[in-house]
């Protein structure tokens, strides 16, 4: 077997009861309170000597996991949150608690990891280039064509690269550069296409806001494709204010400038 994707969720499933109405029901599969399982996308594996899942319960579990992996909201099915849910087996004999663990975490990156995060940036911004008809020939300055050497030139005091990682794999990126006077320029905020719509972009954004405050800063500035109204609206919804535009001869698009202020953030 050869997995082609690094899973971004894992699950812990524990038997918590045999009946919620006070009536004791026996599980034909032999599951007892306290039996615990772990899994990612595949079948649950017992962790304390218990047996496996029955096929009927697997159908319920599969439905819940598909909602998570297709970016659905479990709260629409009556569950109070998206991280810790309880569900019964189809016979009602066993109740389970499933804890959902997001495996993606943000951490600082080193210069040695530059080739890896450069590839993430290029792959992430390639979708923007496709949407706006940008190619290496007509717009070599676009971020989708950024070279390792160009990124390497940013490595200096005050430059902070961060990776959204699952284990050793980088799936997202953002950087902050100290521009003095409490201002930090945020660049190359990116998430690989296959990991989008899980809230990771906002996770990176919120991380950078918190990091700037810890660094003693009070403002974040960014530059975006002005014509990318979806992205501009997303930043606006996350507290950024549009401050102006500029047209560069070497770019086919207009650069829009936005900023976020810690003092005015709600």
Describe what this molecule looks like in 3D.
23% of the residues lie in helices and 30% in strands. The protein has 5 helices and 12 strands. The protein has a 7-stranded mixed β-sheet with strand order 6-7-8-9-10-12-11, with helices on both faces. Strands 3-2-1-5-4 form a 5-stranded antiparallel β-sheet, covered by helices on one side.
Structural key phrases:
266 residues, Aminopeptidase, alpha+beta, single chain, 23% helix, 5 helices, 2 domains
List the helices and strands and how they pair.
Blueprint: E1 9-17, E2 36-39, E3 45-46, H1 55-69, E4 84-88, E5 95-102, E6 105-108, H2 114-131, H3 148-152, E7 159-166, E8 169-178, E9 183-191, H4 200-214, E10 219-225, H5 229-237, E11 241-247, E12 254-261
Parallel strand pairs: 9-10
Antiparallel strand pairs: 1-2, 1-5, 2-3, 4-5, 6-7, 7-8, 8-9, 10-12, 11-12
Put the structure in a nutshell.
The protein is an alpha+beta fold. The chain contains 5 helices and 12 strands. The radius of gyration is 23 Å and the shape is elongated.
């Amino acid at each position: 077997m050869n997995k082609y994707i690094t899973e971004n969720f894992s699950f812990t499933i524990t038997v918590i009861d045999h009946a919620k109405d006070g009536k004791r029901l026996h599980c034909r599969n032999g599951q007892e309170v306290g039996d615990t399982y772990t899994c990612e996308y595949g079948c649950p594996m017992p962790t304390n000597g218990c047996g496996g899942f029955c096929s009927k319960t697997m159908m319920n579990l599969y439905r819940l996991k598909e909602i998570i992996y297709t970016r659905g909201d479990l709260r629409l099915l009556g569950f109070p949150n998206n991280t810790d849910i309880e569900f019964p087996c189809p016979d009602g004999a066993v109740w389970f608690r499933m804890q959902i663990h997001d495996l993606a975490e943000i951490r600082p990156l080193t210069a040695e990891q530059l080739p890896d995060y450069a590839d993430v940036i290029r792959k992430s911004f390639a979708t923007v280039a496709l949407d706006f008809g940008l190619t290496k020939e007509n717009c070599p300055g676009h971020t989708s064509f950024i070279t390792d050497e160009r990124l390497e030139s940013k490595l200096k005091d005050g430059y902070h690269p961060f990776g959204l990682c699952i284990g050793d794999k980088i799936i997202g990126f953002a950087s902050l550069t100290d521009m003095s006077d409490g201002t930090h320029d945020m660049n190359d905020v990116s998430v690989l296409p296959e990991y989008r719509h899980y809230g990771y972009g906002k996770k990176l954004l919120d991380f950078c806001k918190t990091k700037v405050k810890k660094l003693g800063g009070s403002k974040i500035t960014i530059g975006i494709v002005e014509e990318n109204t979806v992205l501009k609206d997303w930043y606006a919804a996350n507290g950024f204010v549009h401050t102006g535009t500029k047209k560069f001869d070497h770019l086919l698009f207009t650069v829009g400038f936005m900023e976020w202020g810690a003092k005015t953030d709600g």
